[in-house]
Amino acid sequence: SDVYKRQGINAEYMGILMKTDTFTYSKPMLVLLGAPGVGKGTFGKRISKDFDMPIFSTGEYLRSLISKKDDVSPLTERVRKVMAEGKLLDDDTIIEIIQKRLAEDLPSAKGIIFDGFPRTIPQAEKLDTVGKVKAVLDFINKESILVEKLAGRRECEKCHDAYNVANIHKEGYEMNPLLPKEENKCDKCGGNLMHRPDDQPTAIAERLKVYHEKTAPLEGFYEKKGIMKTFEPKKGVADYPWIKSEIEKILKP
After folding, report:
1. Nearest to 30 by CA among 140, 129, 127
2. Residue 212's Cα: distance from chain center in Å?
3. Can you say whether residue 32 is alpha, beta or left, with left for phi > 0 and alpha for psi between -120 and 50 degrees?
């Protein structure tokens, strides 16, 4: 319909959705896992660019969805209401949102990467009803290294560009700092660099504890399925060529 065209939804996929009320995604799906500080976001962007697979971030997509004033579909209205009340969306609604996003997929996309979803085993099981998860890419570093990396993070208070003062050369890890040209000043906009409250030692310990508690069952779920691929990038982004070659093997038809 014209409404779907205006929202940029692929007509062929929309036809499937309207006929069956379900949707199966035929391209490969990747899931990213990784504790705070491991560099999952950085690696995700590179993988996305090199393999023509857009990243689906639940939070970003929801913010984009509810900002579209001309989208008055029942799903979007439901999402707006729940988010306005400060409540969490139930799993079935999130799966509907994912189906909507997959229906908007560009023909040029060779698959999709999930970052931040699934978070629980029930969500992982529901994702399996939408399409085939080809692999789960789990990025790990030693806990002490993660703490040091997180404590070294600095962020521009204006444009949020990221830097890191941590200089790590131990236990096989070789990670150079990412420093601005002028101390405590952002290269991009000249704003002051700040140390975020959640990058302070006590907050870091709590974030890592929560991550491991929530993610451990999910790791077990995917390990049993035999699709977990673990990467320990000891040299940060310098390890990306190796990671890329491993993903090439995974995505080979």
Report:
1. 127
2. 17
3. beta
Residue type at position 79: V
Q: Which two tokens stand for residue 27?
A: 């391209």
Interval 68-93: pLDDT, tens: 888 888 999 999 999 888 888 899 99
The H-or-E segment that residue 114 falls in is: strand 112-115
Q: Distance (Å, rounded) from C-alpha 68 to C-alpha 209?
A: 36
Global model pTM greater than 0.85:
no
Contact indicator for 56, 98 with CB cutoff of 8 Å: yes
Strands (E), 151-244: 153-156, 162-164, 168-170, 173-175, 193-194, 228-231
Q: How far is 75 from 127, CA to CA, in rounded Å? A: 18
Q: Is the peptide bond before 118 cis (omega within 30 degrees of 0)?
A: yes
Token pair recorded at residue 150: 């997180």
Distance CA 175, CA 220 (A): 29
